[in-house]
Amino acid sequence: MAMKTRTIKRHLDDSFKSLRRNGWMSVAAVSAVTVTLLLVGIFFAMIFNFNKISKDIENDVHVRVMIERGTTTKQKDQLQKKLEKMASVKDVTYSSRKKELNKVVGSYGQSFKMFTGDDNPLYDVYTVSTTKPTQTIKVAKKAKQLKHVYDATYGGNNAKKLFSVMSGVRRWGIGFTILLLFVAVFLISNTIRITILSRRDEIGIMRLVGATNSYIRWPFLLEGAWTGLLGVVIPILVVDIGYGWVYRHMAISMASAGYSLLKPGMFLFELDLTMAVIGIVIGALGSVISMRRFLKI
After folding, report:
1. Which of 55, 123, 148, 282 could form a disulfide with 66 if both were Cys (CB 3.0 to 4.6 A apart)?
2. How do the domains of the chain map onto residue ranges?
3. pLDDT tens string 223-253
4. Which residue intervals define the domain FtsX extracellular in the entry (predicted)?
5. Residues 6+ apart with CB under 8 A from 94
6. Does residue 228 contact residue 188 with C-beta atoms inside 8 Å?
């Protein structure tokens, strides 16, 4: 057991020494991983939220009719009657600005209580339920033409726009990410290659005294893994802070449309863990490539 502990400690020490010894090559490799994982983190955050909002939109068969500010109670009642008389309308429910804000506070936290009274940017809303999902477009168009209506939104229209944007993001994001992954693996493999070449005499002596192949390989594998792990630190910080900022600042606009982003917390924990695993895998892969090409054992 003591022998295994000493061996592990030696491998770890050797991997750290190699990182320091390679200097700017190590910095370049870590930087490549950092840029790659930053893009991966932003890309994943966007895609997961797009998917979540898409499902919300697809399941939403209601039309949200926003009432112009300054509309009197009598005018609201008249508007409600007109909405109820429309063909294909099953039910009309009223929600005040205050109630809409309470929904935002419930979803995004107490900090949004500051938007009370005249500071509340939301609108009074009539939620119109249709008899069939296919009727929402027709009802929304008719509702927009009514007096005292600021806007009328429905899931189908938002879904088309969202799917179009998401398709472009996926296409460009995946292509650019794959390109950066190759760059990161290339730089890491070259960094490990330099380490192997600088330690040729030491490796030769280790072979002569009977060192196993796995014993020789482990320090290089660990060096690659450390490179990947170091490269994930900045992306995790940037993505976590950035997502928290976007989540807070988009709360009002998202809630006014009836949707919400994925809550931080467990989502960011899983995203951070995914980026860390990808970083380690990238580093290990770069090491394996170098060892196969330059460590003929």
Report:
1. 123
2. 2-57+159-294, 60-155
3. 778 888 888 999 999 999 999 888 887 766 6
4. 61-150
5. 76, 80, 124, 125, 126, 127
6. yes
